[in-house]
Amino acid sequence: MDALLSRLFSSEEEERRTLDRMAHLLLLMAACTFVTLLFENVPYGRYATSRYGFPVNARLAWFVQELPAFLVPLCLLVWTSAGKTSLLPNRLLIAMYFCHYVHRSLIYPFLIRGGKPTPFASFALAVVFCIYNGYMQIRYLSHYAQYPADWVTRPRFIAGSLLWLLGWLVNVHSDHILRTLRKPGETGYKIPTGGMFEYVSGANFLGEIAEWAGFALAGRCIHSSAFAIFTTVVLGSRAVAHHKWYLAKFEDYPKHRKALVPFLF
User: Fold this and answer.
1) pLDDT, tens digit (0-9, with 9 covering 90-100), for 214-264
2) Distance from C-alpha of 160 to C-alpha of 153, rounded to nearest angstrom
């Protein structure tokens, strides 16, 4: 794989500049996505329509679209000269990334019960994003990121790591609540309760946003920050859309519950 990268980039300096440009492009994509989502919901699940392509089975879509976010980084670690992986801060940040995507690509899809099909356009864009972001995050951390020797003991890294862990736990727990809302044989939608769903409609989204915000805080680089901002834009929009949908669907929906941020928003 080093040979492939050497054909793509004339030097390490060029690859590093490319990684930086990719992060800036992701920030631009976040801005464009924010504007677009003011007028239209992300086309998946209950908001999916046929104009975004033929439907893809939910389990298959989640597995295939998320798998590159695991495989591309794994290939980078195994088949490239990932010299920075011997450093503790880099190892811990890479572990945070893989902890999320091992669960999201290899476990979560096979726990889905039913689930509405994903339009092909949404599925294809997710595949592209996972390849793009997986390369950007792990190539930077494994080959270029350089942190001070005491980085893991600094308040920023500790706070970011704790936020990541809290977000991961909220995300996994909230997904479990959503999966177990309906008993076997039941159909239709129900009001989620328990955990952070007592405070917000998008508890699973809040958890994932917190994960990547913590990852960005601990990593202190444009690449992780761009990822966290993009995630916040997309999942924040989903949380708002879900909140409005719940309020319209259920007359007894808890009026104190917010969309994404407990007690505030």
Assistant:
1) 999 999 999 999 999 999 999 999 999 999 999 999 999 999 999 999 999
2) 11
Residues in the chain: 265
Closest CA to 200 of 167, 163, 242: 242
Q: Are 203 and 197 in contact (CB under 8 A)?
A: yes
Do 200 and 261 touch, CB atoms closer than 8 A? Answer: yes
Closest C-alpha among 66, 78, 79, 76 to residue 128: 66
Max CA pair span of the chain? 62
Residues 72 and 135: beta-carbon distance below 8 Å = yes
Cα–Cα distance measured from residue 74 to residue 99, given in angstroms and rounded to the nearest whole number? 12
Residue ranges in the chain assigned as alpha helix (H): 2-8, 12-36, 58-79, 88-102, 120-143, 155-179, 203-219, 222-249
Question: Do 206 and 170 contact (CB within 8 A), yes or no?
Answer: yes
The SS3 of residue 119 is strand
The secondary structure element, H or E, covering residue 149 is none
What does the alpha-carbon distance between residue 128 and residue 123 come to, in Å, rounded to a whole number? 9
CA neighbor of 120 nearest in space, from 177, 55, 170, 164: 55
Q: Which amino acid is at 126?
A: A
Pick out the chain residues at pLDDT < 70: 44-45, 48
Q: What is the pLDDT of residue 184?
A: 74
